[in-house]
Amino acid sequence: MSDLLKRLRGRGWRLTAQRRVVAEVLDGDHVHYTADEVHALAADRLPEISRATVYNTLGELVSLGEVIEVSTDGRAKRYDPNAHHAHQHLVCARCGTIRDVHPVGDPLADLPAQERFGFAVSAAEVTYRGVCPDCAA
Amino acid sequence: MSDLLKRLRGRGWRLTAQRRVVAEVLDGDHVHYTADEVHALAADRLPEISRATVYNTLGELVSLGEVIEVSTDGRAKRYDPNAHHAHQHLVCARCGTIRDVHPVGDPLADLPAQERFGFAVSAAEVTYRGVCPDCAA
DNA sequence: TCCTACCTTGGACATTGTCTAAGTCAAGAA
DNA sequence: TTCTTGACTTAGACAATGTCCAAGGTAGGA
To answer: Which residues bind Zn(2+) (chains A, B) (predicted)?
Structure first.
């Protein structure tokens, strides 16, 4: 994750304790926290960090392309630090668990020109839904 | 849409004026209103209809499979009455316009077994993102 | 060390959705 | 037709999530 901090400094980020702990919380694979969860985990390390700062920092990380915003359920958005490897999401309909998955092929290629209605289409997000092994038991 | 009302009666629905206007508002193709928009349009015909009833009715229509809930932006959910023809959505990143689209192939088939992690996968939702002709101009 | 533009904070506010208690009414029964 | 009853609707309080602002704090260059 210090790679991330280096990239951020390179982009002119002022490196504050608050931004550091938010970046640390988002370190790891298969991380899909809500803003509130990020705030709670960040507050474990830096108790006085405010909600506004967590929202600001997450928004900046998304703008910079370092983190992806995922909303699979219409509730709170989740923040996925795995932004540098294309992937889609598999969500359990019961417990809400999210897995990163890699379908074959390029979903963008499956949308024919006559189905694009003149749009400049640039991305395709796929959400697979099902029931995870724990919830099926 | 009277087809819909008939199906609902067949399922034991009590047919009230409120439910009728909500169903009427959702009549048509390429309809993707938010709950608030449905409420405003319903109130044009039945001014005293309450927000709670609109939410209740939309929730019931979703449970019955007559309407699909779409959340493309993490903001308000949208309600899509085109539930009986499989389709995906194409969203303009600038103005938020939504089009129903029909990609070729079955997106579910593109998720290999070893990428399912033991889930019983039952659906795939694809959101294509781009810029519509009006916004590109 | 100092300066200043950028950052953080607490809290008010906005949006979207849920819940409840009390009153109303659709539709079957008589 | 009228009656009855349980399902439906209502207003408004409440909850969850996110945004904004003015005031004060601080990272990092000079």
So the answer is: 92, 95, 132, 135
Residues 101-120 of B with CB within 7 A of strand D: none
C-alpha distances in angstroms, A120 versus A76, B72, B95? 28, 17, 13
Domain at A59, CATH number: 1.10.10.10
A92 labelled binding-site residue: yes
Q: Do residues A20 and A5 lie in contact, with contact meaning Cβ atoms separated by under 8 Å?
A: yes
Interval A76-127: pLDDT, tens = 999 999 999 999 999 999 889 999 999 999 999 999 999 999 999 999 999 9
Residues B10 and B71 in one domain: yes
pLDDT for B96 beyond 80: yes
**From the C1' of D17, which residue's alpha carbon is nearest?**
A76
DSSP string across A75-86: SS-EEE--TTS-
Pairing of strands B88-92, B120-131: parallel
Residues A95 and A62 grouped into a single domain: no
pTM, entire model: 0.92
Residues A58 and A106 in one domain: no
Same-domain check for residues B110 and B73: no
Q: Is residue A137 assigned to a domain?
A: no
Interface of A with B (CB under 8 A): 69, 71, 73-74, 77, 90, 92-93, 99, 101-105, 107-108, 110-112, 115-133, 136
Per the structure, the complete domain to which residue A72 belongs is given by: 2-80
